């Protein structure tokens, strides 16, 4: 039988190895996104926010510094993530709430809520006419101040068919004042010796956006956080009647109202925490994660306030926003200090 002999495999010569390596370099593996100094600084600021040093005011401040000094390298991604992160964080906070205490807080805040919403919307209409603002921008600012900031503006905007510039102006004005409140309110609360109950209620009424309300109240104390979150989310439900009333006043046919469904998640988490004892060991973990998520939310909000956003607001819309905010803040503070213990 004839046996065929195959040549033994030859080791590659240095020249062949060099050629193979050169070919590999010409066709590299998929590269990771380039790590620019801008992205590195953004990541470092983000890490500080989630570290033990992080807090809601610091997160907002770092976000503002990122936006104004180096710019947000992930602007589009931040915009997509912020809303969802806030919603899940609020749901997580529900695991730290007791349903019975929440009902009591909601009952205590209902009169303040109704009076402040009606008063702010009415005052916003007259201030807008006095400043000769276009009707849609004026109503968006008033709605954001009256109910829950960006969420109310996002819900009312499509109802009145507001364009992108009108939405941007209203959102910019509200977010600027949210940032101021996050730093100023705790200082005023301590200076006036406000109780946890008083401060939580004041935050829920006088600060626009849910993220800033929760961030400010959490910086003051756990009891203030529980009251502020409960009253603010109950206040957010007024988006529905205000949006429907807006559709009637602006005569918008076929208007669709966007409902804040995440509030149902918050209520569900609160009921589970109250009536399912088996979940008690997990509740502190959920609350801690929710607070981290809230801190990141405030960082992303701050990082979205670029110089372009600040310039786009304009003087007259900003004057309206400031007048409404100062009025509701001062009036609610006076009422709370004289009626709530």
Automatic annotation (TrEMBL):
Keywords attached to this entry: Cell membrane, Membrane, Transmembrane, Transmembrane helix
Presence of keyword Membrane: yes
Organism superkingdom: Bacteria
Any matching Pfam family: Cons_hypoth698
InterPro entries for the chain: UPF0324_pro
Segments traversing the membrane: 40-73, 85-103, 109-128, 140-160, 166-187, 199-221, 233-250, 262-283, 289-310, 322-340
Keyword Transferase: no
Its membrane topology: Multi-pass membrane protein
Location(s), subcellular: Cell membrane
Chief location: membrane
GO CC, alphabetical: plasma membrane
Family according to the record: Belongs to the UPF0324 family.
Protein name, entry field: Putative sulfate exporter family transporter
Native source species: Hymenobacter aquaticus
